[in-house]
Amino acid sequence: MKIKYILLFIAAPLFYSCNQSDVGIFYGLENEVKITDNSLSNNLTIGSMAKSPAGELYIAAGRVYTKTSGSSEDWRKVSTPSGYDLSTSLAVNTTDSNIYAIFYDTDSADTALFKMPDGGSWTEVTDPVFEGSFEYVKSANGYILVSTRIDENSARLYYLNGGAFSEAAVVTMTGSDFYVIHDGTDFWVSNSNILYQGNNLNVLTDALTLDSTVEIKGLSESSGAYIYLSCWDRENRDGYLMATDGNNGTLDEESDDKKTYKLFNLTTFRAEGYDFLLCGTNGLGYRQILSPSSSNLDLDTPDDDVLSENYTSAIDLQNCAVIDFFVDGGEDGDLYALTATTGLWKNSLSGGTRVWSIE
Q1: Which of 3, 52, 93, 231 would be 109's cystine partner, CB 3.0–4.6 Å?
Q2: CA pair distance 146, 157, nearest whole angstrom
Q3: For residues 51 and 94, is the Cβ–Cβ distance under 8 A?
Q4: Which of 200, 199, 175 is nearest to 190 (CA)?
């Protein structure tokens, strides 16, 4: 792989239209509510987040950081493997409790996949001989999936099958970015404009193919019979949501509430007795839907409501790129927003209400 592709991947999050600040304490112009600020740098890009079976949280933010779930302790840096100095993608295998992370050598542009037992040391994964350079590692239903880049337009997808990785040969990868979820029965894997479905990662079928100008930018399962997709139409500059029937993969509804801003990944979250669908955006924080369904896919601007009593005070969260979410603890647990260049934000119960703070 040429060095320019590595550098583009590493640098890309830094060019999101995000309001940067080194202050660390932000005040609402109207309410002047102080936002709690914890130990992480506030200008980090959080590439991914995961939780080990032992209850340790991990983030990939250039360096890998960890802390105990639900604790007030500071985030701690995890040592890097010898010869490597940067990681932006990690996942946890709940089957063997290993943390998998992709690391980069910024001097040579080499990439490698490593695994580490919770609290242990990194070991390079070399079985099988992977084709291409490592790009993303993600998890679903106890499985680890890894994408590699062959060139600017093609990639490979591998998954951990027992003790070794196998290639998901049925998935034709156009670019290395992918999303994966499991709905309790089937895996759903998206790449570019195609959504695949199957109960076995090596027997995935094409469930939905969108226009060639559309990119699927996120997936989320629902409490009903739908898979939600966030989409970006490069040609028309439209962002919108879709709901797909979990039985046969057919499209049920397309949101008529199209946006002129790019959408990122999705998550469903239940808090205070309400169901929310949350979607990250490029430069406008996140958007939400209360009680989402195939007929209710219109994204609303958050306000000071049951999900957050201080959203209007979280100025930097409102004006940044939220690229992903992480739910820790299920219903009424902690909700994290992973941002580009504006750090890690946490939504949690405080004094009987849910509030945002910055880690």
Answers
A1: 3
A2: 6
A3: no
A4: 175
CB 157 within 8 A of CB 189: yes
Q: What is the pTM (predicted TM-score) of this model?
A: 0.89
Tokens of 202: 């090596």
Determine contact, residues 264/284, Cβ cutoff 8 Å: no
Average pLDDT (71-86) is: 95
Query: Residue 161 is inside which H or E element, if any?
Result: strand 155-161
For residue 111, the tally of other CB atoms under 10 A from its CB is 22
- The DSSP secondary structure of 293-354, one letter per residue, reads BTTB---B---SSSS-SSGGG-HHHHTSEEEEEEEESSTTSEEEEEEESS-EEEEEEETTEE
Residue with tokens 């990122």: 264
Q: Coil, helix or strand for 292?
A: coil
Is residue 335 within 8 A of residue 322, CB to CB? The reply is no
Cα–Cα dist 228/99, whole Å: 27
- Per the listing, tokens 């050598």 go with 105
Beta carbons within 8 Å of 265's beta carbon, 6+ residues apart: 179, 217, 218, 219, 220, 230, 279, 280, 323, 324, 325
Please report how many Cα atoms fall inside a 13 Å half-sphere around the Cα of residue 269, on the Cβ side. Answer: 27
- Round to whole Å and give the CA distance between 59 and 101: 10
Of 16 and 151, the one with more pLDDT? 151
* Mean pLDDT of the region 172-176: 87
Pick among 3.40.50.1010, 3.40.50.300, 2.130.10.10, 3.40.50.2000: CATH of 214-359: 2.130.10.10
Q: What is the mean pLDDT of residues 248-276?
A: 83
Q: What is the predicted pLDDT for the residue at 169?
A: 65
What are the pLDDT digits (tens) for 27-45? 233 334 458 777 899 999 9
Spatial distance between the Cα atoms of 224 and 108, rounded to a whole number of angstroms: 48
Entry field: residues in the chain:
359
Kindly give, in sequence order, each residue whose CB lies less than 8 Å from that of residue 314, ignoring residues fewer than 6 positions away. Answer: 26, 28, 35, 285, 308, 345, 356, 358
